[in-house]
Each structure stands twice: as C-alpha cells, then as structure tokens.
Amino acid sequence: MSAKIRAVNIDAYRSNKLLMNPMGQPRQNHLADFKVGVDNVIFSVDTHLHRLLVLLVKREDQPYQNYWSFPGTLVRMGETLEGAAHRILSEKIAVKNLYLEQLYTFGNPGRDPREAPDQYGVRYLSVSYFALIRYEDAQLMSKNLSQVSWHNVAAIPTLAFDHNQILDYGYQRLRNKLEYSPIAFEVLPELFTLNDLFQLYTTVLGEDFADYSNFRSRLLKLGFLKDTGQKISKGVGRPASLFRFDARAFAPLRDKPLVFV
Amino acid sequence: MSAKIRAVNIDAYRSNKLLMNPMGQPRQNHLADFKVGVDNVIFSVDTHLHRLLVLLVKREDQPYQNYWSFPGTLVRMGETLEGAAHRILSEKIAVKNLYLEQLYTFGNPGRDPREAPDQYGVRYLSVSYFALIRYEDAQLMSKNLSQVSWHNVAAIPTLAFDHNQILDYGYQRLRNKLEYSPIAFEVLPELFTLNDLFQLYTTVLGEDFADYSNFRSRLLKLGFLKDTGQKISKGVGRPASLFRFDARAFAPLRDKPLVFV
DNA sequence: GCAAAAGTGTTAGCCCTACACCCATGT
DNA sequence: ACATGGGTGTAGGGCTAACACTTTTGC
Fold it and tell me: What are the residue boundaries of the Nudix hydrolase domain, all occurrences included (chains A, B) (predicted)?
C-alpha cells in the first residue's frame, strides 16, 4: 500500500506534475495538467433490419483491456480537437459522407484509472463527438473485425471508462436532433423510400411516435423531398418511389422548430 | 524575437512539454499537454429596462490586459470542471439560485497567446459554461466595480481570446432553451407578472415573436403558472397579477417539444 | 384472387392567429 | 374623464390524429 503510493509520487515527481511544499504536502491551488482525448459516438441505422447501431472498438491495452469502447484517441501536438476525431474515425472506418458535431466534455477527476489514485497526477479529459454515417457506405477498417464492430444500441454491454454515460448523452442528442434537424438524410442512402425514412424514425424514437400516413403527408407538404420517379421493389407488394433530400429546398426551414415528428 | 522563442523553449523544456528528436525537430505524434480552463457565460435579464445582460470581467493581467472577458479560471488539481465554474462564479458574484450547464469546448491550437508561437508548448483548452441568474438577487463581488459588470448583449465590445465566439454559442443556446425549457423562471424573480415573462421573451427573442394575448392564454392553459392572487401596480394602469412557476405541474411537460413560443 | 406493401383521402377536433373588446387604476 | 397597462373573447384558417380506402405488385 505504501509502496504503491510511493510509486505514484515518484512518477508524479518525475513528470513534474506534483509539487510538494516543505511539509511534504501537495501544494494547494496548483493547476491540474491534462491530457485531452476525443471519443466518437458514431451512429448508423440499418434500415432493413430496423436496428440503431453504434460503432465500438475493443480495447487492446490497459486500462479496460478487452472492454468495448468508443473509438477515441489522445490529442497530439498541433492537432485540433475535430482533427483528432477525424483521425481516429478514419482509422476505424472508411466512409464517404459524415456528420460530426461536438457532444459533451467529460473531465472530472477520477474518470480515467490512469490518473494517480490520489488524483494529483495528470488528468484525462474527454471531448466527445457525435457522428452519423451511412451504413451502406461504411467500410470497417480492421483486418481483425472482432476488434471493430457495430452494436445494437438496444443491447450495449458495460463499456470502458465512462463510455456508457457518453452513450446516454449521444443517444439523447440523436433523438433531439431527429426532431428538428435533417440529420436523418446523413444516415439514409442517397435515394430512399418514405418507408425507409419512417422506419428510421420509428427505430430511433420508438414504435408509436406517429402514424405513417400522416408522417408522409406532412413531410411531402414541406417540399424538400423530391420524388425521383424511380421505383424500387422489396419483394412482394407495390414498389415504392425513391426520394432524394433537397438541401436547397430545406434551407428556408433551417432553425424553424419541429419540422419533423 | 529569438530571445522570446528561446524563452518559450526553455520553459517548455523545463516542464517537460516539448520533446526534441536528435535532429532538433519536435517529435511527431507526441501528445499535447493541456491546461484546462472554464469560462462562464452568465446571462441575466433586467426586466424593467428590457435589457439582456451578460457578466464580464476586465482582465488585470496579460494576455489581453484590460480587455473584457468572461469570468474564467484554470482547473486546479482534484477539482471538477463544474467545481471550477462555481468557484470563479462565486468570486465575482453572489447569487441565491443559479442555472448552470456546459456550453461548448474550445481547444484548437492557437486560441490562447500563452501557447508557444510554434504551437508545440502547453495548450489551453476552455470548457465554457452557460449560466442564468436573477438580476435582482445578484450582488457583484468587487470592491472595484469597474472590473466586474453587466453588459448589454446588444453592445458587446471585442473580448479577450475567442470569447466573442463563445458568446455567440451562449446567446444561441439561450434562445433555443427559452423555446422548450422553463429556464425563464431561473431569471425572473420568484413572483412575476405575465407581462414580465412576455417582456423577457421579447427581449431575448426579438420584438415580433408572438402576440401578448395569445402568449398569455397558451401559457395559462398549460397550467404550470399559478396565480398567487397578489397584485402589483406599476404606476398607472390596472394592477397585474403575480404568478409563480410550479415546477411540479411542469414536470409532465419535460422533454415535450415547444411548450413556449 | 389474395395478401402485402405503398400511397391517397376524409373528417372531427384542436390549436394558432389576429384582432376587437372589456377591466382596473392613477391623475 | 381619459390615458395606460392588464386581461378576456372570438371567428377563421390551418394543422393533426385517427382511420378508411385505393393502387400496385408477387405468388
């Protein structure tokens, strides 16, 4: 026990993180030193199987070895936060389009076990990012696919660090954004049926958020969904029209509350 | 000039922040070291004069000496982010109630001139917080009031660091929150008239966001504003009823979109 | 023909908007 | 009395929710 504390202190001393006053107590009011990480909560939707997915990687190293976690990395010298988010994302997955925004920052002491137990060593702060990508376009980038994979949000295991909490934030952000912002079209393929869109909303927001026929007519009346004239047949039943999202027609509705749902 | 760079490098070396490879170039892929600050965007509304206010402090030290900035501080060892936000806030202002939430994190290289010019020294990351307080309850905490004061959001000077950008984020958050969340009651006094409430919305969202009589009946129908029966007279004209926000009656409307406006 | 999936139509009730109007008070 | 600010009422247009109905396909 005392050996462990001693080791911590030596390490802290060596990296000049922990300053002692002449009484051997840590100085009050001394600034904390941080390493800053980014963690990406990457969502996608499998329209066919109606599954909301999030991308997880299995940690190869300590701490939390073999736990699933969000793709994250520590920020390097000269690198922007968003740059770090893009870097780690592109190491795990290849994707054409991508929606990315900052989610939340977690930086309380003790959130990373690499911090010294007495909390006077280096601290690890995580800036989390929220991302959406098209399931069809995404290509996982691992030789060993067991290390990177999609997980159904409905069944997420205990994750490394405070990542379950980060997921809660991300999931809530996703639900909120769906209601007033056209992010659904970041997740859908270029051409989609209105049923695809409806299924996406149902998958994320729950089964009973709205009636299909009303959802349909409300969105069509808004005028930013363009019927391409093409039809697609999914087995039995009447073929569906393929639509395209027209960003230009949507522009005037920006910042208007509640266009969807 | 070269003396300055030398000073930076010595400082970086001393705190073990800048590692050189044998060629004298900074090592690639080396992690950045951060100091983490919090900056509070503290809003209040002067209901009488219809002014939206934000609290600024005048910087006493370099960099940006004598510029106005948000009350901010660097995070100390063992301190939570929110703890640091509360600490600096209570140094500048005494207040009974307080609404505080995280706003956004700014951490790109070069945002603080204390970073070495070549950007390979310590970096300064800022986690900004959004706060709302009651103007009547707030007591500025300065012997020298010229150093801490309310500023009309309509006329903000050039601020220190990237604080004008932070203000933009904060102002937008305020407007969004007003629409779907009961934060207005954090800013209003305990008892208020419906006209106070309406003036608050008008001040923040603009003159023509709604009709007073419709605003009034819509909110009253929702049932979380309790008429205390007390009247208050503001000079000439019919005295107004004083209302109180009933948080319990509001609870079922939590997370429901667009209860206001 | 029939089941399945896509798409259209209808109706009643609600809410939002834009006003007009009435009420209570100070001077 | 009348100006001033507080408060109520109402007619209409538009939107929503719920559900019935029609169309187009595969088998």
Answer: 33-174
Least confident window among A85-89, B58-62, B114-118: B114-118
> Which residue in chain B has the smallest CA separation from A83?
B108
Strand D bases within 7 angstroms of protein beta carbons:
3-10, 15-20, 23-27
Tell me: the pLDDT tens digits for A187-239?
999 999 999 999 999 999 987 788 999 999 999 999 999 999 999 998 899 99
Cβ of B200: how many Cβ atoms within 10 Å? 21
Distance CA B136, CA B207 (A): 23
CA A35 from centre of chain: 20
A65 touching B (Cβ < 8 Å): no
Neighbours of A248 (CB within 10 A): 7
Q: Which of residues 196-215 of A touch strand D (CB under 7 A)?
A: 210-211, 213-214
A:B CB pairs within 8 Å: 104
Of B80, B102, B125, the CB nearest to A104: B102
Q: How far apart are CA A165 and CA A152, in angstroms?
A: 16
Closest residue on chain B to A87 (Cα):
B29
Residues B159 and B166: their CA atoms lie apart, in Å, by 10
Which chain B residues are within 8 Å of A109, Cβ to Cβ?
Answer: 78-80
Task: Tell me which chain B residue has its CA closest to the CA of residue A121.
Answer: B77
Distances (CA, A) of B152 to A204, B42, B45, B56, B198: 41, 12, 9, 10, 19
Taking an 8 Å cut-off on Cβ atoms, the answer to whether B77 and A104 are in contact is no
Q: What is the pLDDT of residues A99-113, one digit of tens each?
A: 999 999 999 998 888
Determine which of A241-245, B111-115, B168-172 has the lowest per-residue pLDDT on average. B111-115
What six digits make up the tokens of A61?
A: 């190293």
What 8-state DSSP symbol labels residue B102?
A: E
Task: Return the closest nucleotide (C1') to the Cα of A220.
Answer: C7
Once rounded to an integer, what is the mean pLDDT over residues B129-133? 97
pLDDT in tens, A127-137: 999 999 999 88
